[in-house]
Amino acid sequence: MNILDQDIMYLPGVGPNRKKMLSKELGIETYGDLLEYYPYKYVDRSKVYTVHELTGDMPFVQVVGRILSFETFEMGPRKERVVAHFSDGTGIMDLVWFNGGKYARQNYKIGTKYLVFGRPGVFNNRIQVQHPDIDLAEKVELSAMGMQPYYNTTEKMKKAGMNSRAVEKLTKTLVGVLKDPLPETIPNFITAPLHLMSRDQALRNLHYPQDTKDLERARVRLKFEELFFVQLNILRYASDQRRKYRGFVFNRIGPLFNDFYQKNLPFALTGAQKRVMHEIRKDMCTGRQMNRLLQGDVGSGKTLVALMTMLIALDNGYQACMMAPTEILAEQHLQSIREFLKGMPIRVELLTGIVKGKKRQEILDGLRSGDVHILIGTHAVIEDTVQFAQLGTVVIDEQHRFGVAQRAKLWAKTEGNTIPHVLVMTATPIPRTLAMTLYGDLDVSIIDELPPGRKPIRTSHVFDNRMTSLYDGIRRQIHEGRQVYIVFPLIEESEKIDLKNLEQGFETLREAFPDFRLSKVHGKMKAKEKEEEMQKFVSGETQILVATTVIEVGVNVPNASVMVILEAQRFGLSQLHQLRGRVGRGADQSFCILVTPFKLSEDTRKRIDIMCETNDGFRIAEADLKLRGPGDLEGTQQSGMAFDLKIANIARDGQLVQLARDEAQKIIDEDPQCQSPKYQMLWNRLRQLRKTNVNWAAIS
Ligand code: ADP
Ligand code: MG
């Protein structure tokens, strides 16, 4: 048996109680689990300071000296503060206990040489350390202490005396018990040229590094390993898919595409749209299934690219389908696509949850007979009852709500092992390194150019005590014929309060704008009602749309030129950017106004500043990733490519992600079937990881 699989109970210092505690609180069952329970910080214990050197703003320090005397101060009933005056000959400092002082007074002796460890502060002009760690100086061998690891423990553990120090004792024992070198997971011929430590060295050093350089090298090795296997898994999946399935060959650019391009297209394509179309056309001719992620900021013209991609399928005798995350969006796609295709012999239908009865049956029949050429819809289109005569291309708008598993359901709609081409579109720009990990099985195209003539949206920040002048501004815009969005936050935890908030706010606004007509839309309304209210705004019947974030994605009203976001502090960056993207779609100057209370947290201030500074979705996404970390980014949970990273951080370790990707790609290119004995160590490890990690199994 591999010693790392040994039950943690057999580790000296762990009895049945601690075994239970470790398992329940930290999920640690084996030696290996404990070894992979990494410290969250380290304190350098190789250096000893003199009292004279200390200042109040140092991190943890240690000093060797003697206690001169104790003093006790009463602090109310049964509370006392105990102070020990401590000196090493260079000066005097105070050791302070607010609790446990009695124990300290009894246990520590005046005149004995102690090693004192803690974080220094200043009180009454004197350095003090509260609740210090104290050891007999002669007992500790300073040079051997190096960096001391700190481990997270839970409240329950702390109550039972299992603090960081206790876990440290266990990891120290463990590292001692593991005499033989730990098994390697990546062959030396891969790690050596990259100057990476062995796994054995890295794991030991991560708990007990000699110095910060050592620690950094250990970290790099383990981060690389983690990212490398994630990439290997993704690329293996993609290569499997390619081997298992073929893609239709659509090499004909026929009359539909050409007619549309020459007669119906109301404007010239942007350079970016042309480039992306070129990439898509190339994909469709290879005989491999296209699996492409199209990223483009809001308003960059993705719908048109989607339409032309679908026309290629039609020209080759196949049908196409486009999925949107909401009914409103699907409806809008239907309208704009019908508008684009006016006068052309193409039947486009809408299928959502609200299409029922006879109409639904008609559409289903049309799909089966091939009479319906393009189907636009919501999740409803992946239901089993929806069958196509010849589905050739699928476009998925706003990827983050469709996971890999749902994409896979589409394969079932075609017979045999030739599957439809897939174009996934997202307006939530994803930084490259994150895309590589989340959507690593997709090729990526980027539209990085907005259609000409757009004026950049002007964004400003307004405190909520300035509403009167904000209302004046809104009135001026409406008098000029423009329309206005006013958004209220609606966050699930406090949905009820928010709804009340929205209702009240709506009344306030109605009173503030007696001359104008207002629409109101929120997530709790019936779909039909919502639709009607939206429609009033789209048609211009109402001038102000008061809404929650349901308008976040896709809604297109070019005449709207003002986006007011109330309580903007409650929105994330990418959400703010999405909302802002609802304006700036026409030729007029547009405005986005972020309203917040006066008092803001540091993070919120940063978010607001970035929004006011730039309209560039990629810059905003990068900033978002840095501020929030990848775990919170939209799409990470639902993506189906989810994974638990123990040590790497996609936001900060971008270069390592790239390196891991490149190395993994080389191996998959050389051994696409994962059979070469040369890489046996890797394939074994991958199998082991996939067995133990639930999330990883999700994509197999
Ligand atoms: P998104 O990428 O957000 O889905 P849309 O496809 O909705 O963007 O396009 C936004 C607007 O820009 C639409 O009104 C669309 O007709 C228009 N548009 C798209 N491409 C061009 C172009 N090349 N030139 C001018 N306008 C364009
Ligand atoms: Mg769109």
From TrEMBL:
<keyword id="KW-0413">Isomerase</keyword>
<dbReference type="GO" id="GO:0043138">
    <property type="term" value="F:3'-5' DNA helicase activity"/>
</dbReference>
<keyword id="KW-0378">Hydrolase</keyword>
<dbReference type="InterPro" id="IPR033454">
    <property type="entry name" value="RecG_wedge"/>
</dbReference>
<dbReference type="GO" id="GO:0006281">
    <property type="term" value="P:DNA repair"/>
</dbReference>
<dbReference type="InterPro" id="IPR027417">
    <property type="entry name" value="P-loop_NTPase"/>
</dbReference>
<dbReference type="GO" id="GO:0003677">
    <property type="term" value="F:DNA binding"/>
</dbReference>
<dbReference type="InterPro" id="IPR004609">
    <property type="entry name" value="ATP-dep_DNA_helicase_RecG"/>
</dbReference>
<feature type="domain" description="Helicase C-terminal">
    <location>
        <begin position="466"/>
        <end position="631"/>
    </location>
</feature>
<dbReference type="Pfam" id="PF00271">
    <property type="entry name" value="Helicase_C"/>
</dbReference>
<dbReference type="GO" id="GO:0005524">
    <property type="term" value="F:ATP binding"/>
</dbReference>
<feature type="domain" description="Helicase ATP-binding">
    <location>
        <begin position="283"/>
        <end position="447"/>
    </location>
</feature>
<protein>
    <recommendedName>
        <fullName>ATP-dependent DNA helicase RecG</fullName>
        <ecNumber>5.6.2.4</ecNumber>
    </recommendedName>
</protein>
<dbReference type="Pfam" id="PF00270">
    <property type="entry name" value="DEAD"/>
</dbReference>
<keyword id="KW-0227">DNA damage</keyword>
<keyword id="KW-0347">Helicase</keyword>
<comment type="function">
    <text>Plays a critical role in recombination and DNA repair. Helps process Holliday junction intermediates to mature products by catalyzing branch migration. Has replication fork regression activity, unwinds stalled or blocked replication forks to make a HJ that can be resolved. Has a DNA unwinding activity characteristic of a DNA helicase with 3'-5' polarity.</text>
</comment>
<dbReference type="InterPro" id="IPR011545">
    <property type="entry name" value="DEAD/DEAH_box_helicase_dom"/>
</dbReference>
<dbReference type="InterPro" id="IPR045562">
    <property type="entry name" value="RecG_dom3_C"/>
</dbReference>
<keyword id="KW-0234">DNA repair</keyword>
<keyword id="KW-0067">ATP-binding</keyword>
<dbReference type="GO" id="GO:0016887">
    <property type="term" value="F:ATP hydrolysis activity"/>
</dbReference>
<dbReference type="InterPro" id="IPR012340">
    <property type="entry name" value="NA-bd_OB-fold"/>
</dbReference>
<comment type="similarity">
    <text>Belongs to the helicase family. RecG subfamily.</text>
</comment>
<keyword id="KW-0547">Nucleotide-binding</keyword>
<dbReference type="Pfam" id="PF19833">
    <property type="entry name" value="RecG_dom3_C"/>
</dbReference>
<keyword id="KW-0238">DNA-binding</keyword>
<dbReference type="Pfam" id="PF17191">
    <property type="entry name" value="RecG_wedge"/>
</dbReference>
<dbReference type="InterPro" id="IPR001650">
    <property type="entry name" value="Helicase_C-like"/>
</dbReference>
<keyword id="KW-0233">DNA recombination</keyword>
<dbReference type="GO" id="GO:0006310">
    <property type="term" value="P:DNA recombination"/>
</dbReference>
<dbReference type="InterPro" id="IPR014001">
    <property type="entry name" value="Helicase_ATP-bd"/>
</dbReference>
<dbReference type="InterPro" id="IPR047112">
    <property type="entry name" value="RecG/Mfd"/>
</dbReference>
